[in-house]
Amino acid sequence: MDYSKRHFDWFGFIIGLISLYAGYLVLWYPLNSLSTIAMIFGIYVILRGQYQLWFGSQMTKFLGVRSGWTVFSAIVDILIGVLFIVRSDVSVMILIYMFAIWFLIDAIFQLTTSRFYHFFGKKYYLAIVILAILNLIFAFVLLFNPILAGGVIVFFLAFFFFTTGIVGIIEAF
Question: Which of 77, 82, 94, 126 is deepest in the core (most CB within 10 A)?
Answer without folding.
Answer: 77
